[in-house]
Amino acid sequence: MQIGTGVQRVVMALLVVAVAGCGPSDEAKRMADSAVAAAARANARSAAGDVISARREAQALLDSARAAYVAGNCTVAAKGLRDAATFSLAQADSATGAAKDALASSAAELERLSTRVTRGAVTSVKTLDSVFARTHMAEAWYHQQRAVVAWRGPNGAQAGAELIMVADHLDRAMADAGRVESESAKTAIADARALGSKLAQGIAVQPADVAATFTAVEREVANLFATLKP
Predict the structure, then answer these.
(1) Does the structure show a pLDDT above 70 at 15?
(2) Please, which pLDDT band fits residue 47 given cuts at 50, 70 and 90?
(3) Distance between CA atoms of 99 and 122, rounded to whole angstroms?
(4) CA spacing 20 to 30 A to 58: which of 37, 129, 150, 166?
(5) What is residue 13's DSSP assignment?
(6) Containing domain of residue 17, as a range?
């Protein structure tokens, strides 16, 4: 991890306190370690902020399409759905495995829904919500995959940001599907947010805690994804 020039100078100044044959004092080492740790946390927060600020989701497109449909503007609603399909397909291009398949499937479903809305064949907004729930699950798979890759990178800050996004998509998927979160889902989502926040801030965590949280979140994503299949 790169440490800023200013911090490097502080560290050097703190350590250059030795007299011939003597090493730096315990206090000097403590202060130097604190400076390095502070820089590491600052870098982590910056990196996580970059991920969050660059966050692009289909949510705005889905919300716009839903609002247009409720207002009776099927033309605008259909366009929003097509745009969301294009977005999901673009994400699929950078995904692999289950996430890639889920995003591609979501894109195809959004395209079909757009056609149905254009034809006036959709009679309830719940039809849109059901499709949107599956779209969020596909995105949850995507960010779960990216979180694991980032953690192994190792890039804890990005892993934390991605993990927070997984929790967001799980929450929204359940809301769109009209599901009441199970206790295990609530716990997994809360743990994902807590761990994600720590990683994003550069706070030290135990690898075992990371593994347990990743496993629990992935299990909830898989379970909900299976129950929301059309």
Answers:
(1) no
(2) very low
(3) 28
(4) 150
(5) H
(6) 5-52
Domain tally, the chain: 2
| pLDDT over 90, % of the chain | 64
Shared domain check, 165 and 79: yes
161 in Cβ contact with 46 (< 8 Å): no
pLDDT value at residue 227: 84
CA distance 150 to 160: 9
Share of the chain above pLDDT 70, in %: 76
End-to-end Cα distance, the chain: 45
CB 46 within 8 A of CB 74: no
Query: Could you tell me if 166 and 217 are in contact, meaning their C-beta atoms sit under 8 angstroms apart?
Result: yes
For 140, the 3-state DSSP assignment is helix
pTM to 2 decimals? 0.74
In the structure, what pLDDT confidence band is assigned to residue 180 with cuts at 50, 70 and 90? confident
Query: Both 74 and 47 in a single domain?
Result: no
Nearest-angstrom CA–CA distance, 179 and 202: 34
Same domain, 35 and 66: no
